[in-house]
Amino acid sequence: MRRLFAVFVAMLLTTPVFAEEAKPAAMPPVDADPTGLIVFALLFVGMIGGFAWYIFVKERAKAKAAK
């Protein structure tokens, strides 16, 4: 069992050597359309604003009911 563990550790210690030999793949050029990002940003900000408005209305109703 010790020998198996020693072989396993030795194999793991050699993996960085093999990783350095591989050349990284070139990244493809990014030609992304910003429409998706704009739609996401508008929805995100709109939902935050809607949530803040909902909390404001509920707090105002709660304060009115407490009077």
Q: Can you offer a commentary on this structure?
A:
The chain has 67 residues and is an all-alpha fold. It has 2 helices and no strands. It is elongated, with a radius of gyration of 29 Å. It starts with a helix and ends with a helix. The model has no long low-confidence stretch (mean pLDDT 87).
Please outline the helices and strands.
Elements: H1 2-21, H2 35-66
List the uncertain runs: none
Distance between the termini: 77 Å
User: What can be said about the biggest beta sheet?
Assistant: none
What is the string of SSEs from the N terminus onward?
A: HH
How helix-rich are the residues, as a percent range? over 70%
Count up the helices. 2
Tertiary shape:
elongated
Average pLDDT confidence is: 87
Strand content is under 5%
What class do helices, strands and sheet pairing give? mainly alpha
Total E-strand runs: 0
Radius of gyration: 29 Å
